[in-house]
Fold:
Amino acid sequence: MNKFQAMAQIMAILCEDGRFRKGSPKYKLARKLIASKIDTMGPDAAYLQAKWAKYQIIVEIDEFERAEKVGKIISNFT
Structure:
């Protein structure tokens, strides 16, 4: 499987319950996180992680979203 196929299949897994809407800010953050996982782990390993640990990845996306919000708040003060 190549990177593009992995991204499509992983996003399909994450979006199957309607948690992420295509084009939303959270969807875009999820794609960034998944792209990073694919680059780090490789497409096959990232796909298997999404398949077997979907909710762990969703928690990571939520944490990533909170961290990005905090970063924006802090940058507004500087």
In short: The chain has a mean pLDDT of 90. Helices lie at 3-15, 25-41, 43-52, 54-77. Residues 63 and 76 are 20 Å apart (CA to CA).
